[in-house]
Structures are given as structure tokens and as C-alpha cells.
Amino acid sequence: MLTWQQLRDAKFTEYEDAADGWSTVSNRADAARVRIEQEMAAPLRATQQGEALTSADRDLTRLVRNYEYIHSECGLVRTTLNALATELAAAQKKLKQALDDAAGLGFTVHEDGSVEYPRSTELPGSPGAASGTGDAKPGAPVPFLPGAGEAGGDPNKGRAEDIAERISQAVNSAIEIDNRYAGTLRKLKAPDGLAVTDDMLMDEARDMGDVQQAVGSYLGKEGIPDGKSPADNKKWWESLTEEQREGYQTLYPAEIGALDGLPSAVRDSSNRIVLDEARAQVQQKLDALGPEPPKTIYTAAGAVHNPEWTAWEAMGGSKYKGQLEGMKAIQSRFDRTGVDDLPPAYLLGFDLKGNGHVILANGNPDTADNTAVYVPGTKSKLAGARGDIGRMQEIWDASHQLSPGKSTATITWIGYDAPQSIVPEAMEKHWAHEGAPKLNNFLDGLQTVQGGPDASHTTVIGHSYGSTTVGAASKAPGHLAADDIVVAGSPGMLVGDANDLDVGKDHVWSLAARNDAVPLGGKVAGLGGYKWDVETWHGLPYNAGYVQTVPSDEAFGAHRMAVDTSGHSGYWKEDSTSLQNQAAVVTGRYNQVVDP
Predict the structure, then answer these.
(1) CA-to-CA distance for 60 and 33, rounded, in angstroms?
(2) I need a surface site. Which of 74, 179, 285, 501 has the fewest CB within 10 A?
(3) What DSSP character marks residue 590?
(4) Please, what is the angle between helix 577-586 and helix 385-402, to 10°?
(5) 288 CB contacts (<8 Å, ≥6 apart)?
(6) Range with lowest mean pLDDT among 84-88, 141-145, 209-213
(7) Are residues 113 and 137 in contact, defined by beta-carbon separation less than 8 angstroms?
(8) Which of 565, 557, 513 is CA-nearest to residue 535?
(9) Can you give the residue ranges of the DUF1023 domain (predicted)?
């Protein structure tokens, strides 16, 4: 049982020193993860091949996973110890204030916490006035203080009772704090071995919840900005101590990883914790369902739908498989750092909400000379992220080759809920309007971290319905934080003229393959805009009046670029003119854009 003497004499700096040690381990583990990926694995992948590369890459990937786990778990220990020291110090401060008050009044505090006081002579002649001493213990229902209580009472008795009660409360508070944190700290341990298993990551997620609950008064989630501008988020982050930043990163990684306006390295480190834990949780859910049954079974009567597959599907089978596929695509991009000169990848956003979201950058946009943000369209989601991630790798490669002396970052932005069907969802405008504020916040966040609108040449690339979302973002309050807009296979941008977009018509560029039916379909859905004009085809008028236009129409006024690819999804074919035209805009080499 803790005594008030032990609480008074305790040195909580020892906990803080221990926390500093765990902090060092956590930070070094995160730095080691970055060093392995960028300085060891990347050169290895760029120069080696065959079984030797496969074996070394496997070992390095496991080591990266180990360091990610160490970073998170040691960070939780650090935060727990710092919070423990802070809360105990607060209880100790209350105790010492009570002891100082007792000493100032000439009272004596006994070992059991009772307070001996001299009887007051402040009220001579009253029934309460007497010589000698009294003994006060905690628990008096209403401590008597000067000016209160029954007439003729002894003020010293009230003062002593108040001090005794404060001593008791301080000690009991310290006991509660010690018990609460002792249970949390006992759980922060890992089994022996070199492999980080899914069970360990599941345990890490539980540890995070336990620590969040334990340290709520020290480092609460409510302290994180919610709904603020990227500039406000940046200001908040910069106002924190290094200790607070480290604590928030490992204790609330999902919230910190999603915060526009924070450095990309910070968001990446936090989101990798979220990704690892999510992957383990989804894999466990899928494993619990058992192997996927065949969708169709064959009987003497012929092929019939398998009810076992229907049940498996109803419990989330395909959903979990898709989520895992999306997460594997992210990991695959991590593993390709250094291959074909690809720069490090930064995970700027990740969650499993709705259809799942991922924001993944090739290169660090904070310091990039050129930045491209790709907004995909209908059916985009975490499960199908592999193709969208691959498109931005192609844009990065083409841009890097076109402008090797400049740094380029290309970003796959699946940061909104896109329509998941052509009919009816892709014919509705609300998906674009709901996604627009999210896109604007992200672009504002990039610009805030980069240092202003002139720090990086930024291009937003909208594909299919993604271009509709870009159009809605340009129409939304504020300003689209971009220099150029490129749209590919656009069904319409909700405006009738390129000049209606924030960047102005000279910086709006359109790609549309001859056999891409989406622009026409967009007009049927009413996703274009309207204007009084004469519609022409290669300069020949064919319609006049209040016409609906999409970016591939001459009347829209965008720069129409040459396309040598076919279909709705071929605009990122390697070495194609379609791809090279996009890279020319991304790098600001407008004179190299090929006209149709």
C-alpha cells in the first residue's frame, strides 16, 4: 500500500528517463525502416536479380516489418511511461501543497495521514475555545473552514480536516494511477522470435486501445484537430513538443495519418501502422470464414448456384479478399522502391471505411518540383487500387525521363467515395460534390506543407468520373490548389467552358480516344455544363444554341491533346503519346504537348 511519505519522496524523473530510452528505440526503429527501404533495398533491387535478390528482398521486407512493429510498440511504452510520470507528478504536487499548508499552520501530519492541530483561541469565551490539541482524519462530511459551519466551531479543526482529506485524496489518486498503468504496461510485451505475426499485430491494436484509454487525460484524442483547415493543422502540429508529436503518431496513427497539412513522412509513418494492423485484422476475419467455396456446383441436373458460397459472400468473403488485394498492391509498391529508378513511396492516406481509401505517392511531394495528383473515377476503391497505383508509376517514369533534372512526385488519390456502377451511380452528381471538399483539402494540405503555391508545379489528373469530381472541386468555395488540370475520358466537369475552372482555359488539357464512349455517355447523364455557343468539329459548325459541352468538345475550350491509345483506360500505356502528353503538362513543358 502506497503511503504519503512514499508519494512525497518519489522521483518520477526515473519514469521520464525510461520513457526517453523507449523513445530513442522507437525513433531509431522508424529511421532504420526508412534506411533499409531507401538505402539498402532500393539499390539492391536496382542492380540485382535472380534468386539472390529474391532471398535478400524477403529478408529485408521482414526486417522492415520488424522495425515497424518496434516503432509502434516502443512508442506505446514511451507514451505510457510519460503519461504515468505526468499523472503521478500531479498527485504528488497536490500532496506537497497540503503538506506545505500543514507546516505553515504549525500542524503535524502523522504517518497514517491524520493531522494534529492546536486548538484555536480565535474565539475566546466560546464553547469551542480550549487549550491543547486535536487530531483530524480524512472523511469529515463537511470540513469546517473559517466563516462556515456551526457557530463557535474551531477553525483549526476545519483546516486540519481539509488538509487530511487532501492528503488522502492525493494518495488514493496515486494508487489508482499506479494500478491503471501497471495493468497497461504489463500487456506491452512481445513473444520471442524474429517474425512479426498477424497475432502480434492484432495484439498491438489491442495495446493501442488500452493505452488510449489509460492516458486519455494526458494525451487525448480530442486534442487532435477535427474539421480544421490544413493551415490550422500545420500550426497545431508545429505547436507541439517533440514528445507530444511522437506520442500522437504512435497512439493515434489513423487520425494523424489522415491530417492534411502535416509532413508526408509523418503521415506515411503513421499510416503504415494502420495498414499493418488492418491487414492482420482483415486476414483474421477472412480466415475465420474458412476456404472460399466454389460459386457454382455441378449436379446431375446441371450447374447450380452454391448456397455455401452465398453464405460465405454474405459474411463478407469477397469484401475481405478485395481489401487484402488492395493492401497487397500498396505493399507491392513499397517493395518496388528502387526498381526502374522508382523513388520511395509515401502512404498519405489509408482506411477501410466504405469501399476503402488509399492515397499513395511516388516520391516525397513536400519537396517535389512537380506534383501530379490522379483522381480515378467509377469503380475506384481500395480493392482495385493496383491499376490506379500502376498508372501513377507510369506518369512518374515518363515525367522523370522528360525532366530528369527536376524532382517529381505522382500521387494516386483514392480519397473519396467514387460511384461503383455506371448505372445509376455514375449518372449522379452527388459523388462529385461530396468528394470535392476532400480533394480540395488534400491539395491545400500539399501546398501548405510545400510552402505555398509557387513551391511546386501541381497538376490534377482526372480520369472518367474523377474529372467530374475535379470539376466540382474547382466550383467549390475557395480555390483549386493546382496549376494545371488534365482530364482523360471525361464525361463532363459540371461546367460549360474551360474558363469556368480555377486554372483558366490555358491550363486545361483534355484526352479522349476516338472509341471512348464515356464523353458521350456523360452528356446523356448531364454531367457536362451548358453555354451559348456554336459547336464545331475540326472547325466545321454543326450545332448552335444553348449546348452541353464536355472537355473533349471544341466548344469547351480546353487544349485537346493527341491520343494514340484506344478505349477508356488506355491513356497510360507505356511509351504512348497519350502518356507523354500528360508528362509534358506535369513537368510544365507545354511546348512538347502533341496536338491532335
Answers:
(1) 9
(2) 179
(3) G
(4) 70
(5) none
(6) 141-145
(7) yes
(8) 557
(9) 353-518
